[in-house]
Amino acid sequence: MSELVSFGETMLRFSPGKDERLEDAEEFEVHVGGAESNVAIAAQRLGTPATWMSKVPENPLGRQVVGKLRQYGIETDVSWCHRGRQGTYYMEQAGEPRGTNVIYDRQDAAITTAEARELNLDLIRDATVFFTSGITPALSPTLAETTMNLLKAAKEGGTTTAFDFNYRAKLWSPQEATETLTQFFPGIDVLVIAARDAQDVLGLEGDPRQIAHNLGSQYDFETVIVTRGSEGAIGWHDNVVHEQDVYETDTVSPIGTGDAFTGTFIARRLEGDDVPTALDYASAAAALKRTIPGDVALLTAEEVESVVKHGSKAISR
């Protein structure tokens, strides 16, 4: 039985070489990536048995996603289907002023039709933590309803629910996101949210410490984590606010940094760490992920431990 179960879409990511333009590329690197599977993998790398749930097309692309995730060490429990497609995205990376350009190609993906009755709800009820993100309900009205039903199943089983707000402007408007996601809040124990999303989407005022406290008090969350990018994170728990700085890092790829942070935080809490300690490990994992190409945090518990103990220069000997 997995301690952590996550639910969401995992896509295939096609990237040309660094600085290359998509329109001129002749070869692409292929990676798998999705917030929920990224979180599951990060937690598993820290020693937490994890399962990713989804609905996947029964075709070579869908099988590649599932096969890759299994290679990374997590269990998969999917509803295979013969309608719908495998979502993909394309990412062009370069220095400023071009920066990173992402093109999503996920319309009519198989997961957009996933319903709770197609999934193994007992896995969620038996898990210690159930995780999903705000990306999932943004993909279709069906998935918004499914997300609500999965959170309810978790509550029925006494499973702790963790949710990353994870607003994506390319998927829906701030108003749409607020109307939908705040309906989930009563069923969420641990909320992770970027300070910019709390301000720009939810319309909350104040600094991140005030935002964390206000969210925790208003919605009766058990824990609220407000991420601040290069300024670190704020953790609110038991009416106490904790502050966590970032570890210095050389960025190879920022994709998946937040997922590495969240997966590690969950794993360390499951190990019994208090919130400040779990935040410290999560920050170390996020720094390590930025040195790793692709979406997935292929790190080790020993590496994370070394950064926590000795700082950013710990493993560059």
UniProtKB/TrEMBL annotation:
CDD domains in the record: KdgK
**What is stated as this protein's family in its record?**
Belongs to the carbohydrate kinase PfkB family.
Keyword entries, A-Z = Kinase, Transferase
Protein's name in the database: 2-keto-3-deoxygluconate kinase
Which SUPFAM superfamilies does the protein's record reference?
A: Ribokinase-like
Q: Which species is the source of this protein?
A: Natronolimnobius baerhuensis
Q: What's a single GO MF annotation on this record?
A: kinase activity
Annotated Carbohydrate kinase PfkB domain residues: 1-295
Q: InterPro entries of this UniProt entry? A: KDG_KDGal_kin_Halo (IPR054871), PfkB_Carbo_kinase (IPR050306), PfkB_dom (IPR011611), Ribo/fructo_kinase (IPR002139), Ribokinase-like (IPR029056)
* UniProt entry tagged with the keyword tRNA-binding: no
